[in-house]
Amino acid sequence: MTDAARNTIYALASALPTRSGGAGVAVIRLSGPRACDALVFLTEPGAFARGGSARDPALPEPRRPVLRPFLDPANGEVIDRGLAMRFAAPRSYTGEDVVEFHLHGGRAVIDAALAAIARLPFCRLAEPGEFTRRAFEHGKLDLTAAEGVADLVGAETAAQRRQALRQVDGALGRLYEAWRASLLRALAHLEADIDFPDEDLPQGVAEAVRPELAGLRSAIAGHLADRRGERLRDGVSIAIVGPPNAGKSSLLNLIAQRDAAIVSTVAGTTRDVIDVHLDLDGYPVTIADTAGLRRSHDPIEQEGVRRARARAETADLRLLVVPAADDDGQALDWPALAHDAIAALSTWSPDTDLVIVNKADLLGAADPGPEGHHGIASMRLSARTGAGVPELLGRLGATVATLLGDAPGANDPAPLAASDNMLAPPPLTRARHREALADCLAALDRALAASADGVAPAELVAEDVRLAARALGRITGRVGVEDLLDVIFRDFCIGK
Ligand SMILES: Nc1nc2c(c(=O)[nH]1)N(C=O)[C@@H](CNc1ccc(C(=O)N[C@@H](CCC(=O)O)C(=O)O)cc1)CN2
Ligand SMILES: Nc1nc2c(ncn2[C@@H]2O[C@H](COP(=O)(O)OP(=O)(O)OP(=O)(O)O)[C@@H](O)[C@H]2O)c(=O)[nH]1
Ligand SMILES: [Mg+2]
């Protein structure tokens, strides 16, 4: 679409006010060829009624906020008095003329201001992600950076924020573009061979580009094998499992610091998987409480146990809760309980998973012996008194950091200037990229296989190299992505 034919779009850029009240200030943003006309009509008494086009002298200088009345163009009523600011194309977020109004953040102000803008016939409400989509279309950012913007808005922990900002800054896009450039170089060699087969090019061009293709293949395979970026974006999943009545729900509630799950003396209380989202030392974590594992004739409990097992299997880390003592304070053989439970689970990773010996308070003076039994890592605690829980959280934080590839403490208040993670190449962060990279890898494998025998025509190899490059180009948006854009931007929030 030509720029002049575009609508001028608008939306509330700040959060919607909630029932409990708004924020102090709300930001309404407009972008498009007539954003400056809107600024005049909404701030100059009588300008809209005069019907004339906006006069330039009324415009503030770009990037200098000015205090103005915000008017209803229909009747001239002053809705609020706030700051107006404009960015002149192409030096703006979207690359178009952008106008912002910083108004008071109440529900009535926002409603009236949005209704006033809607009265301007050349303005329409923006779709989710449309500002950022326009920024992409004007070359302000590549698709991975645009997706990074959505991740940055959604980031709930420090580590997620760092990963998203790095992507907004273009680190991931540059990595994929560098890989694509290397494929395009190989392609140029192959095409030279196709176009001028009789000239003095070295024998076996397909052979000659193999090292470059092979190097790229291994870099992409390594990148695909690394799940840390996606894990950080989605949150690390921890499953609490164990026999009924062990205190799993009590432990979850203690960690969540609220009554997320029902606790009772009845064995078999929990049936559904109950997820609690936490910020653990700056890392996003989802902890799931699950039904106690046992045989049952109750079909509902059976389903609960099935769900518990399924979650234990897919979780990044398992906490197996077993009781240290029965209700009378009699010490139980917890290593035997733990071994039985681990044997019954299909997944147990000794490096990350942990046995929690709960109800330590019931043991009184009786000591259950040293921690660490038969090679299973264990910690003793009491979900009733809270004893041992800070130690558990400390240990979990360190394990989660390791799972995400950080050195312990990387999220401490004064982190190292650049953690190891910041120096390493940026990780894969989303399924869309993973799928395209898998396509790229498959095409590279075909190209390598075809060039291996030394007799494959360059055309054949070139076609797969071209497909591999195209797959990478679709990640950054450099080639053929028109069909992707609706899908990518619809997950954004409105106003972004
Ligand atoms: N008030 C307000 N705050 C905001 C935004 C906004 O749109 N409005 N942003 C929106 O997401 C983020 C900031 N992102 C922005 C990115 C680029 C430009 C911009 O004007 N870019 C020009 C000029 C660059 C320069 O002066 O160096 C350009 O790229 O040409 C503005 C905001 C967060 N804070
Ligand atoms: N003394 C003592 N009692 C505890 C402790 N933790 C939990 N309990 C009690 O043990 C009982 C079972 O606790 P829950 O947290 O419901 O146990 P659960 O593992 O979730 O049980 P199911 O959901 O049935 O599998 C409740 O009466 C709790 O109050 C503890 O550390 N010490
Ligand atoms: Mg429970």
From TrEMBL:
Pfam families: MMR_HSR1, MnmE_helical, TrmE_N. Coiled coil: none annotated. One of its GO terms (cellular component) is cytoplasm. Gene3D superfamilies: P-loop containing nucleotide triphosphate hydrolases, Probable tRNA modification gtpase trme, domain 1, tRNA modification GTPase MnmE domain 2. K(+) binds at residues 245, 264, 266, 269. GTP binds at residues 245-250, 264-270, 289-292, 358-361, 382-384. Its EC number is 3.6.-.-. It is found in: Cytoplasm. (6S)-5-formyl-5,6,7,8-tetrahydrofolate binds at residues 29, 100, 140, 496. Residues 235-401 form the TrmE-type G domain. GO terms for molecular function: GTP binding; GTPase activity; metal ion binding. GO terms for biological process: tRNA methylation; tRNA wobble uridine modification. Its main location: cytoplasm. Mg(2+) binds at residues 249, 270. CDD domains: trmE, TrmE_N. Binds 1 potassium ion per subunit. Keywords: Cytoplasm, GTP-binding, Hydrolase, Magnesium, Metal-binding, Nucleotide-binding, Potassium, tRNA processing. The keyword Metal-binding applies. Its cofactor is K(+). Homodimer. Heterotetramer of two MnmE and two MnmG subunits. Exhibits a very high intrinsic GTPase hydrolysis rate. Involved in the addition of a carboxymethylaminomethyl (cmnm) group at the wobble position (U34) of certain tRNAs, forming tRNA-cmnm(5)s(2)U34. HAMAP family: GTPase_MnmE. Belongs to the TRAFAC class TrmE-Era-EngA-EngB-Septin-like GTPase superfamily. TrmE GTPase family. This is tRNA modification GTPase MnmE.
